[in-house]
Design brief:
alpha/beta, 2,3-Dihydroxybiphenyl 1,2-Dioxygenase, domain 1, 4-stranded mixed beta sheet
Length: about 120
Amino acid sequence: MKLKNILVVVKDIEKSKKFYHDLFGLVPILDNDGNLILTEGLVLQDAKIWKDFLGKSIVAENNASELYFEESEIEAFVQKLERLYPDVKYVNRLMTHSWGQKVVRFYDPDGNLIEVGTPM
């Protein structure tokens, strides 16, 4: 068995598709009417589909999980993030952990937590 995909719930698939393409270079592989599979195994699912399926409310910024990306040129990434999405909500701006790894944490437009760190 192997893990195939990670799914995040979004209100506007087109807006989220642009966000993940702009920042991470992810591109669509398969569009199944409210379920968009991107490269690297990320799936964007329309919030209405998710809510109807679960029968429960969606809690944005729940801080129970995060998408983690690595970027060796993290300062350039942060500059791109600030240029393209100046209103992004940060959990923490670029910082350096005690073990030397640089990281930045922020939310996507739907409150899904993202961390970008330098390779370890």
